[in-house]
């Protein structure tokens, strides 16, 4: 009964495929049957459809499912596969890429290719994904074609572990055991917390989310166990079962129990396919290449440095088709949003201009709105030039995010806030110990004139509000008052690093060598965490650094409060316990993600004649088959960088600041005199419970 309903759903999706490309979209309107999203890939939104087509054939023995899968697979390998990449395309125009980034859910596809028997592309894509993991410790939720972070989250997804298991089963190559070992080590080192494993909020900084999804237990642990399990460890023969997309086991004998619904789909003709690898289709997990243990290695070898030392940006299919024809009448480097003549040319090319609330300007191209097909092609080339121009500027001027870590009671380094860097002042990447001190709110709060409470600011880290003057002016004023650092808090209510582009503070166009203190920028949400902590605890100490530090590093050479030490732990094991119970070894990645914009501004985009310079890099990311968009800025202070919602940056850097365990030392003199007197057990427990309650209250906002 349920199987009939499931089959009807599969039949409907099959009938709604785009007949010329044999691709299906990502999202469909269940009421009208129309595609809501007409881009096609193998990742989020469509992954399980392909998986169930092949596995339905394996389990039910119905040839129609295999024929459908092979038809789709031929289209995937023809249009979506750009080894080792898998890029979404438009179902109506499959030669046109729909995006320039990939999501982490496509990591399941090498495993499905193993089940299909197409091993070579499975090895290639898996190796590319592994190189991304080695760069960022985890697979970011999305990453660009030049392997930079697009979406920084990682909810401990199991798809890569799944593909690793199936590749090991298929090849018997011990290399995949090493891959599994790396996954386990990274989980224990970066994701383990006292009550389990926490999802990563940002793979660059190592910050956590207060969640552990059920698929982590149901799939990740299962595939890792099976990867390392010997035959005698299994109480049943795993070859007698097939995995669902959620790693539940279904016995293969189900295929012999009911043959009444095993039938051909007589309503649809299948495309004649000329693909020799279909001969390899083998719905089992037996070892395919037992006599050639070097087979997989020979495929991996050319890809081992694909992330770190190369920038695989080939000529796009669109560029290929356009060739080296005439240049558009308006070049991207000459464009000015304030020039009426330029706007008229854009309109003719089908490019419209949209002013965003934050001061940025977005360009969107709709080919159907162009005056002619030639003008539409001019518009497309203009958009591509804009992408290249923005990406080149990103390559020249870009800084990674910084970290603001609350180290005082009751946080003790657990709370890490992602902060925007400044193009002036102390370079925290060259001062690994960072700057540590108590925070103090300055008067006036905007920091645009002489500080009237210097006694409260001296030898402290000054808190100030964004607006009314340039960042460099704020820095000079608090430095003159004796501050050892500064934090600028965004006055845009509700702004957050979760949703806004990473912000980069630029100078004032003058020489800023006189500014020697570190300056960081916090969005409103993150800034309020510090302000709330001040209201609650008054004395709040923070660490400004390029990467978050673990607690063993933070408290090295300092007294640690008795109440953060487990009563059952001997003092000589304290460092080890702290390391095990706090896996917040926060590590900042070189956050020049091609998908993120670090909008650098020298002036504040507020009232009083201030101007905005925050800008997105160009993005050729069509909303439909005939459109493309790019965000730019017409401000002189524009310095593009990275934006989680923006476009990829085709630039590569040879030096990879890969997150790693911190080995730097903090300052030897603590600003806090911890109370290490011997306390009764009841007092220790009372303090401990009080700390947990206070921390949970603050942690709710951050995590």
TrEMBL record:
<dbReference type="InterPro" id="IPR012341">
    <property type="entry name" value="6hp_glycosidase-like_sf"/>
</dbReference>
<dbReference type="Pfam" id="PF02225">
    <property type="entry name" value="PA"/>
</dbReference>
<feature type="compositionally biased region" description="Basic and acidic residues">
    <location>
        <begin position="577"/>
        <end position="588"/>
    </location>
</feature>
<protein>
    <recommendedName>
        <fullName>alpha-1,2-Mannosidase</fullName>
        <ecNumber>3.2.1.-</ecNumber>
    </recommendedName>
</protein>
<feature type="binding site">
    <location>
        <position position="245"/>
    </location>
    <ligand>
        <name>Ca(2+)</name>
    </ligand>
</feature>
<dbReference type="InterPro" id="IPR046450">
    <property type="entry name" value="PA_dom_sf"/>
</dbReference>
<dbReference type="GO" id="GO:0005975">
    <property type="term" value="P:carbohydrate metabolic process"/>
</dbReference>
<dbReference type="Pfam" id="PF01532">
    <property type="entry name" value="Glyco_hydro_47"/>
</dbReference>
<dbReference type="GO" id="GO:0016020">
    <property type="term" value="C:membrane"/>
</dbReference>
<dbReference type="InterPro" id="IPR001382">
    <property type="entry name" value="Glyco_hydro_47"/>
</dbReference>
<dbReference type="GO" id="GO:0004571">
    <property type="term" value="F:mannosyl-oligosaccharide 1,2-alpha-mannosidase activity"/>
</dbReference>
<keyword id="KW-0479">Metal-binding</keyword>
<dbReference type="InterPro" id="IPR037322">
    <property type="entry name" value="EDEM3_PA"/>
</dbReference>
<keyword id="KW-0378">Hydrolase</keyword>
<dbReference type="GO" id="GO:0005509">
    <property type="term" value="F:calcium ion binding"/>
</dbReference>
<dbReference type="InterPro" id="IPR036026">
    <property type="entry name" value="Seven-hairpin_glycosidases"/>
</dbReference>
<dbReference type="InterPro" id="IPR044674">
    <property type="entry name" value="EDEM1/2/3"/>
</dbReference>
<keyword id="KW-0106">Calcium</keyword>
<dbReference type="GO" id="GO:0044322">
    <property type="term" value="C:endoplasmic reticulum quality control compartment"/>
</dbReference>
<dbReference type="InterPro" id="IPR003137">
    <property type="entry name" value="PA_domain"/>
</dbReference>
<feature type="compositionally biased region" description="Polar residues">
    <location>
        <begin position="628"/>
        <end position="637"/>
    </location>
</feature>
<dbReference type="GO" id="GO:0006986">
    <property type="term" value="P:response to unfolded protein"/>
</dbReference>
<keyword id="KW-0256">Endoplasmic reticulum</keyword>
<keyword id="KW-0834">Unfolded protein response</keyword>
<keyword id="KW-0325">Glycoprotein</keyword>
<dbReference type="GO" id="GO:1904380">
    <property type="term" value="P:endoplasmic reticulum mannose trimming"/>
</dbReference>
<feature type="region of interest" description="Disordered">
    <location>
        <begin position="577"/>
        <end position="678"/>
    </location>
</feature>
<feature type="domain" description="PA">
    <location>
        <begin position="442"/>
        <end position="529"/>
    </location>
</feature>
<comment type="similarity">
    <text>Belongs to the glycosyl hydrolase 47 family.</text>
</comment>
<keyword id="KW-0326">Glycosidase</keyword>
């Amino acid at each position: 009964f349920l199987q009939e309903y499931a089959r009807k759903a599969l039949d409907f999706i099959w009938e709604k495929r785009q007949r010329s490309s044999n691709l299906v979209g990502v999202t469909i309107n269940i009421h009208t049957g129309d595609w809501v999203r007409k881009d096609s890939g193998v990742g989020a939104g469509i992954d399980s459809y392909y998986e169930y087509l092949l596995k339905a054939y394996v389990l039910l023995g119905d040839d129609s499912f295999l024929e459908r899968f092979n038809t789709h697979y031929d289209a995937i390998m023809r249009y979506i596969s750009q080894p080792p990449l898998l890029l979404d395309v438009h179902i109506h125009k499959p030669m046109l890429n729909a995006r320039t980034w990939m999501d982490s859910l496509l990591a399941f596809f090498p495993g499905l290719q193993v089940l299909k028997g197409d091993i070579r592309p499975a090895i290639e894509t898996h190796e590319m994904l592994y190189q991304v993991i080695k760069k960022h410790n985890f697979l970011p939720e999305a990453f660009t074609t030049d392997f930079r972070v697009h979406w920084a989250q990682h909810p401990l997804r199991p798809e890569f572990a799944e593909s690793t298991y199936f590749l090991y089963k298929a090849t018997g190559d011990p290399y995949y055991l090493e891959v599994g070992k790396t996954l386990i080590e990274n989980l224990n080192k970066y994701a383990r917390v006292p009550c389990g494993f926490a999802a990563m909020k940002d793979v660059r900084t190592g910050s956590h989310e207060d969640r552990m999804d059920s698929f982590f237990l149901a799939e990740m642990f299962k595939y890792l166990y099976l990867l390392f399990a010997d035959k005698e460890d299994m109480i049943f023969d795993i070859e007698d079962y097939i995995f669902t997309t959620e790693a539940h086991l279904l016995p293969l004998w189900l295929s012999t129990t009911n043959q009444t619904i095993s039938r051909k789909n007589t309503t649809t003709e299948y495309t004649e396919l000329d693909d020799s690898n279909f001969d390899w289709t083998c719905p089992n997990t037996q070892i395919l290449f037992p006599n050639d243990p070097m087979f997989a290695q020979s495929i991996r070898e050319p890809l081992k440095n694909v992330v770190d030392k190369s920038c695989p940006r080939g000529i796009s299919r669109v560029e290929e088709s356009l060739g080296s024809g005439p240049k558009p009448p308006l070049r991207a480097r000459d464009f000015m949003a304030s020039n009426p003549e330029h706007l008229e040319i854009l309109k003719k090319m089908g490019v419209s201009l949209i002013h965003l609330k934050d001061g940025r300007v977005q360009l969107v191209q709709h080919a159907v709105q162009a005056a002619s097909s030639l003008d539409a092609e001019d518009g497309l080339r203009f958009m591509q030039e804009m992408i290249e121009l923005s990406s080149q500027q990103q390559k020249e001027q870009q800084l990674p995010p910084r970290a603001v870590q609350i180290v005082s009671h009751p946080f003790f380094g657990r709370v890490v806030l992602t902060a925007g860097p400044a193009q002036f002042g102390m370079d925290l990447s060259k001062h690994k110990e960072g700057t540590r001190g108590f925070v103090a709110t300055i008067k006036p709060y905007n920091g645009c004139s002489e500080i009237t409470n210097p006694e409260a600011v001296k030898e402290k880290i000054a808190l100030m509000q964004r607006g009314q003057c340039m960042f460099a002016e704020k820095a000079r004023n608090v430095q003159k008052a004796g501050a050892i650092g500064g934090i600028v808090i965004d006055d845009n209510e509700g702004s957050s690093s979760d949703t806004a582009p990473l912000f980069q503070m630029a100078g004032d166009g003058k020489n800023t060598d006189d500014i020697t203190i570190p300056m960081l920028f916090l969005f409103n949400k993150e800034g309020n965490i510090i302000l709330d902590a001040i209201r609650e605890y008054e004395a709040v100490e923070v660490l400004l650094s390029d990467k978050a530090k673990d607690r063993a590093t933070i408290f090295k050479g300092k007294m640690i409060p008795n109440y953060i030490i487990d009563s059952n732990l001997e003092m000589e094991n304290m460092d080890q316990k702290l390391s095990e119970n706090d896996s917040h070894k926060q590590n900042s990645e070189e956050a020049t993600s091609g998908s993120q914009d670090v909008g650098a501004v020298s002036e504040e985009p507020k009232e009083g004649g201030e101007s905005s310079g925050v800008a997105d890099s160009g993005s050729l990311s069509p909303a439909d088959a005939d459109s493309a968009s790019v965000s730019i800025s017409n401000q002189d202070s524009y310095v593009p960088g990275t934006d989680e919602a923006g476009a990829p940056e085709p630039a590569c850097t040879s030096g990879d600041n890969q997150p790693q365990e911190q080995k730097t030392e903090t300052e030897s003199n603590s600003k806090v005199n911890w109370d290490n007197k011997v306390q009764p057990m009841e007092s220790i427990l009372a303090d401990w419970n009080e700390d947990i309650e206070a921390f949970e209250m603050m942690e709710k906002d951050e995590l």
